[in-house]
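User: Predict structure, ligand nicotinamide-adenine-dinucleotide.
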Amino acid sequence: MQVKDFLKKLGLKTKNPGTWTGQESLTGSVRSIQSHSPVDGELIGSVTVTTREQYEQVIARAQEAFLVWRNLPAPKRGEIVRQYGEVLRQYKDPLGRLVSYEMGKSLQEGWGEVQEMIDICDFAVGLSRQLYGLSMHSERPGHRMYEQWHPLGIVGIISAFNFPVAVWSWNACIAWVCGDVCVWKASEKTPLCSIACQHLFQKVLKANDLPEGISCIINGDYRVGEYMTKDTRVALVSATGSTRMGKIVGKTVAERLGRSLLELGGNNAIIITPSADLKIVLTGAVFGAVGTAGQRCTTTRRLIIHESLYNDVKKALAQAYAQLRIGDPLDPNNHVGPLIDKGAVENYLHAISEVKKAGGKFVVEGGVLEGPGYESGCYVKPCIAEAQNDWAIVQHETFAPILYLLKYSTIEEAIAIQNGVPQGLSSAIMTNNLREAERFLSVAGSDCGIANVNIGTSGAEIGGAFGGEKETGGGRESGSDSWKAYMRRQTNTINYSETVPLAQGIKFDL
Ligand code: NAD
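Assistant: Predicted complex:
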């Protein structure tokens, strides 16, 4: 399918959409962001940057919409999200293609992201009938005590380029069934994906005669993000991106005593033990390291390999990397697509030179690809280096396909290496030894938000709570009881007796 065809199917009619705002009734911005595809360097379209005045209009609309939306019973809100899931099923193909073309991930992964959106819609529909509070036994006779959950109001969502649609939906679908309204600032690197999602959701709102302010988008870089982080009207800011960004956003929101939910960088490792099944190891490690060209927060960046099989794993990896096909991610024959932009290529090259400076040896060499098919200048070779865990470059998350090999001799040492980085997102162990597996999952094991056995570090399901510890930010999104972050808890005590007994037996007689 041609680019202009899938843009047209998504309602982005012309090759250069020019002045899309996402909130079509807003006009007046003069600045715009050009969205170039990393696949071929072509301009896909431009999007106007939201001005301060437009932001004020968006917030006013979101506030108005909240008054309507919060009064709709939660299962009715779930019905709206169910309809959105149906629309996404209908548009899975063109939206997946746009994700792939604008972000540069494989078409399989582009469709996979839309599938994740559909899955979270289904999850949220069920959740809309399960926003449970507890009831407690009161210590006072003739009293009943329970808790209930109310929506927060406006939820601000700031998202990263690498999951340009799924991460927003993890937040928005849950927030909506909770009764919140959402304002989304997507990555300035993938603005058209957010406009397409917004168009599709607006269709559902229109069909149900609901206010458009239930879902708003604002466009621009960190300066537009700051409108929300500094705004007391935005009750929760859920921000996904780098640790650098999270430290600023967390501080800014905390200064006004707002709530933040932070999903930040990872530095994920797989421990490969002597009893590991090598076929599982190879699939898990190679997909984890080169999938999405190493641009997943859960990308495998470090392999911690037992000394007894270190050389065998190293050889097998080198052979597997030799089979990798790098090129147009919309071509299903290719395994690895481009990095997001030339800045990311610079970071990749810088990391390689730092590894060399530290004394690292490359098992598979890296480099930038040139020539036909690589005109965008964003295609790089996935590479593998032998390294030490305490090197500054290994401690740092480089958002590119660079894999570090580390050696261990005891399981305690392997776990210490796995935990010995500032980030704490995803981790895995490859083992058929029950004791090792349980040790890795025990309180003295992995310190990450995600710990897997015989599965790589990347590719989470929406049913679990997603997020990580330490510099990954501590937030949890998506499944399990992550919904609680999008609501406020209220404790209610009802006195149905004819006296007024005080708690703790305090006497106060008039
Ligand atoms: P980034 O931090 O450069 O940008 C992310 C978003 O934050 C963008 O929308 C950006 O405009 C906004 N932003 C940046 N500074 C801001 C500020 N001061 N105030 C308000 N908004 C601001 O990240 P990126 O390059 O788009 O994405 C890659 C990073 O995201 C990696 O570190 C990756 O690990 C992380 N990530 C984490 C998760 C997770 O769930 N833990 C998921 C996806 C990506």
